[in-house]
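Thread: tryptophan complex, take 2
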Amino acid sequence: MESTAATNVAPVPEAEGKVEQNITPWEVESGESGIDYNKLIDQFGCTPIDEALLQRMERVTGKPVHPWLKRGLFFSHRALNEILDAAEAKQPFYLYTGRGPSSEALHLGHMIPFMFTKYLQDAFDVPLVIQMTDDEKFLWKDLTLEEAHRLTYENVKDIIAVGFDPRKTFIFSDLEYVGHMYPNIVKIQKCVTTSQVKAIFGFTDSDNIGKYAYPAVQAAPSFSSSFPHIFGRNSNVRCLIPCAIDQDPFFRMTRDVAPRIGFLKPAVIHSKFFPALQGPKTKMSASTPGSAIFMTDKPDEIKRKVAKYAFSGGRETVEEHRRLGGNCDVDVPYQYLSIFCFDDSKLNRIREEYSSGRMLTGEIKKELVDVLTPIVLEHQRARLAVTDEVVKTFLTPRRLEFGKN
Ligand code: TRP
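Output below.
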């Protein structure tokens, strides 16, 4: 196994009564002061993304890196340098990401991995596979199989609306496509014991056996031979996986298994979580109303939610705020702006104005609404243009183009 807290790092004793952070692919619980990402890097045994790696990425792609790399939203990786080596040597690689379709509408946080994956697809000009894990959501949630499958189709429209290139992108529902991956799935399953799966994912004896089998299904798309029509049944093409850090346990397992079945280990690039409107301690949840801006929200809903729910780092009174200034480190409007306001000089100006007290809470909230509204409206316009025909194109197993830009 690659290093984990369980094997390598002595547990740090926590103060009495303190809430410990606990992050699994299905649950994100933070400590008192939000998520400690450095601790997560240590626990999971991944590597922080540093300035040198970003510069190398710019050299290799010949393009500026995405602001989310510069601003540390994507902050950690496994073996990203091997991907850059491959790109430099003009060797092929592909991207793999996914989504568990558990809700009708996607919120802003859901869009982040896909928007970032689109940047990677454009910057490196490589094929992309997107796994829709309707099977996973059926096994974990109170959802019928038919409903999970239907949600795949709804969510796929949102994903396509991000702007992926249909000549280079294959999207699949596990329920439909799993047979093609099955040879790799059973190879993976044979390499992982029940006690390993329990240790990695925290399953207990009362979890259903589908859960125990599922990690191999999420691992399989990391191996190119799971896609015979794209890469060929005997291929071994390198893979890079953009994902939120909570998905890392799957790929730690995958990297452990890979050499034992003759495949290259996938590389991974991790994002932090996007905070809920109520504050930086949680990630947005599609099931908590008012915790998220949805991609289906109307402009007045965005305005109302930001005004009503967005946790403020502003002071009690205007007088006090003018004197002490707002606290950008906890202010949700500022946190959201630091992700979605791509104009560096505007963001810096807002930071200065707000933290000096010249800008008030109502004003920074207005800045946020002005940034988010066009993004959400543009998404709605793009989604409307995604016809059933377009969906079918992306979901059809077929050859994909490599580097024709
Ligand atoms: N398990 C993920 C979710 O619930 C979906 C997923 C499958 C995924 N494969 C992936 C996410 C690869 C990132 C990368 O959303």
